[in-house]
Amino acid sequence: MVTLSGAAPHIRIARPSRDLAAAERFWSDGLGLDVLFRASADGPGEHDLLMLGWRDAGWHLELVGGRQLTAEPSPTAEDLLVVYLDAPVDGQLVARLERAGGTLVSGGPYWDRWGVTLADPDGYRLVLSTRGWTNAP
């Protein structure tokens, strides 16, 4: 494991978003991530910013948007954020994610076998995997 000063590094997953409010509904209201930080663009070259994650996790999702967004979201079927549940996928969670703007999609044969895949409002995919991290390939 890579360490810096004895601590494991934190990972940031950064993505553009067309609509930060819609993305927040999906990731926070739907999946249950906490809003860790938000900011509005103050000047030239800046973006509106939304950071989401679980407070004690070693990663967070950073979404940038607003009028000065220079890169439109361009997700592919391989742009996945996988959450390993090590349990069956709760149907109520899937329904909540759909109500929050998610769309059920096929993840392909592997992910359809091992979980449920939803697209967020920008088209990026979230996989809720029934597998545990230790038994994932």
UniProtKB/TrEMBL annotation:
Pfam families: YycE-like_C, YycE-like_N. It comes from the Bacteria. Residues 7-131 form the VOC domain. This is VOC family protein. It comes from Micromonospora zhanjiangensis.
